[in-house]
Amino acid sequence: MTTEQAPDEMDVMAAEYAMGLLTGEELAEAKRLLATDRVFAQAVTDWEMRLASMTDELAPAAPRPAVKQALFAELFPTPERKPWWARLWLWQGVSALSVLLLVFLLSSGLGNPPADGGPLYTAEIISEAGDFRVVAVVDKSTNEVFLTRTAGAAPEGRILQVWAHGEGEPATSVGLWPQGDTVRIAMPPEIAAVEGILTLGVSEEPVGGSPTGSPTGRVFGTVDIPGVSSRL
């Protein structure tokens, strides 16, 4: 033995270490001996095997669901998810009335709330005459744009079409808005990839959409959203 403890004391310490009963200085001493004293290390191994054999005749028992859930929560904590309103980036002086309407629609479920995850960029598209208003939310966690019309509509026999582009790029159709006050549209890959300034616009077009791939009817308005990124 390389320690000053008697063999019986060493064996007791090995047993207590194997059962997880040591704390403080005694635990530190046991760990030191485990790393430096072969006899003590063998005694710990013997006790661990002896204790393990005592469970051989016990029937396995499944843990209660609550215990299992608590263990998994401790080992694999779920990242905190931010509510959609904590991820909103407001731009271009979105009117208070429009924001209140948007909050009501999303909170009540009428507007199919954006998923938790990446940032949300919010802006308002307003026509020069003030007769057409749309609150737009760009959801970078799903690369979708959510639009709520708060004033105006397409002329009878026409539909709305949503457009977008990056800085210096031509307008690309995001999708049609045939009816209703709200719509949610998946952005095309080239629009989803835009970083920096994202321009959104809405025009009125023939049923079926623009035949040319560019706006052909009245463009109600556009808005530039700066600082767009997929990261919060």
TrEMBL record:
GO molecular function: sigma factor antagonist activity
GO biological process terms on file: regulation of translation
Signal peptide: none
Superkingdom field: Bacteria
Domain Anti-sigma K factor RskA C-terminal: 113-219
Keywords: Membrane, Transmembrane, Transmembrane helix
Record's GO cellular component terms: plasma membrane
Residue ranges crossing the lipid bilayer per the database entry: 88-106
Keyword Membrane: yes
Claim: Acetylation is one of the keywords in the record: no
InterPro entries found in the cross-reference section: Anti-sigma-K/W_factor (IPR051474), RskA_C (IPR018764)
Protein name per its UniProtKB record: Anti-sigma-K factor RskA
Source organism: Yoonia rosea
Organism phylogeny: Bacteria, Pseudomonadati, Pseudomonadota, Alphaproteobacteria, Rhodobacterales
